[in-house]
What does this fold into?
Amino acid sequence: MLRPIGSSLPLGFYSFGIGMLLLASFPIGWIPVTEQKDVGMFLIAFVFPLELIATVFAFLARDTLGATTLGLFTASWLALGWADYAGPPGARSTTVGIYLFGFATAALLLALMSTQGKPFFSLLLMIAAARMVLAGYWEIGGSHEWDKISGGFAIALAALAMYGGTALGLEDAQQRELLPLFRRGRADDAFRGYERQLERLESEPGVRQQL
It folds into this structure.
């Protein structure tokens, strides 16, 4: 059965990029610390619901790895937004620091898995992991310089996410790659007709008896 589902990845990438721009603005100094609650509110009310929609439709489109990545970041936007909204301006949190270290580990593992088909996603995830480690180190007591460096990584992530969202949107509209995303393997097969995809149909979720 063919489902008329549009790609949710451009929505996920664009909202991710805007969220990263907000996270970068604190350590860099573009947004004053006194507006921390405003940043938290936008992460909760804008970035989180859009990422949630992208996650749901990525699962419906059977993109397990992409949906898992989106899902982890979806919950993270809500958690970080709530921490910013509820916490005192400029305060550090060891709990947030440990959380960021754990999330960075998951992001690195996802980056390694993505290298088999989507190296652009791997690059994005590795930079995201580096940003989380730097921000986490500041949270547990590192100097402010580490947080400023994490802000620079966040700016790079925002730019990459905007590029990725544009590339994926154009690709979906034109049904061919216009801006390179360097797909390979099974990810590249998805753009080369049904025959290659049908070869693995029997082992797909929903067809095999167990996940």
